[in-house]
Amino acid sequence: MTQRLKVSLGGMRVGELGQDPGGRIAFQYDPKWILEGFDLSPGSLNFEGLPQSPMRGVFDGLHGVFNDSLPDGWGLLLMDRVLQERMGLNRSQITPLHRLAYIGDRGMGAIEYAPMLLGGEDASLVDLSQLALQAEGVLMGSTEEVLKELRILGGSPGGARPKVTVAFSKDMKTCRSPFAVLPEGFTHWMVKFRDPSNSMIGDEIDSGRMEMVYAEMAKASGIEMPRTHLLELNLKGRREAYFAVERFDRVNSRKIHLLSLAGFAYANHREPCLDYGSGVLAATQKLTKSQQEVERAYRLMVFNVLAHNKDDHSKNFAYLYDLQEGRWRLSPGFDLTYSFGMSNQHTTSVNGSGLPVMADFKKVATDFRVQRWNNIVEEVAQGVSNWQALAKDMDLSQNRMVSVQSALDATRKRVFN
Ligand SMILES: Nc1ncnc2c1ncn2[C@@H]1O[C@H](COP(=O)(O)OP(=O)(O)OP(=O)(O)O)[C@@H](O)[C@H]1O
Ligand SMILES: [Mg+2]
Question: Please, which residues bridge with residue 329 across strands?
Answer without folding.
Answer: 320
